[in-house]
Amino acid sequence: MTEPRVSVEFQQRELFPELPDEKTMAAWVAAAAERDVEITIRFVDEAEGFDLNSRYRHKDYATNVLTFDYEHEPVVRADLAICVPVLVRQAREQGKTFLAHLCHLIVHGTLHAHGYDHVTQEQADVMEPLEIRILQKIGFEDPYQDRGEQPADSQRRPLP
Predict the structure, then answer these.
(1) Torsion angle, CA of 135/139/141/142, rounded to 10 degrees?
(2) Exposure check for the chain: N or C terminus, fewer CB within 10 A?
């Protein structure tokens, strides 16, 4: 079996100098890829994160990651919006490193792009162990070990 082909485009990365290089983040997407993937990751500030979450999920707060998945097969096509200020705040509150939490959100969003979800307990029982295995393979700890973390959000509508 051949490795999935992974194409990742990054938007607004230059606004957040704390982000790792693109090669590292693309490797995290690849670690979660089950089939060919074409994904755009847009890094947003709190205002844009609030706007997107309000517009597409009708929630009055900026969330950590939003997944806008367009196609699951034969190629996964999706956009992720990662709100960096929320990511920074959550990492600090949860006693995690910025990189560990960012990796988790990228893996989490990539799995949503593949069609995984965690709305029901049955879905979470499939998605969370998969996330844990992928993150441990990359070298990060179980993000749910303290169970204090709230799952990342997803929404299935396109970015404007």
Answers:
(1) 20
(2) N
pLDDT tens digits, one per residue of 95-154: 999 999 999 999 999 999 999 999 899 999 999 999 999 999 999 999 888 754 444 444
SS (H, E, C) 67-136: EEEEECCCCEEEEEEEEHHHHHHHHHHCCCCHHHHHHHHHHHHHHHHCCCCCCCHHHHHHHHHHHHHHHH
Q: Please give the Cα distance from 116 to 20 (Å, whole number).
A: 26
Instruction: Please give the Cα distance from 11 to 84 (Å, whole number).
Output: 13
Residues whose CB is less than 8 angstroms from the CB of residue 28 and which lie 6 or more positions away in sequence, other chains included: 103, 106, 107, 110, 138
Of 77, 87, 99, nearest in space to 153 by CA: 87
Residue 43: its H or E element: strand 37-44
The response to whether 112 counts as a known ligand-binding position is yes
Do the annotations mark residue 114 as ligand-binding? Answer: no
Find the farthest-apart pair of alpha carbons in the chain and give their distance in angstroms, rounded: 44
Please indicate, yes or no, whether the overall pTM of this predicted structure exceeds 0.85. yes
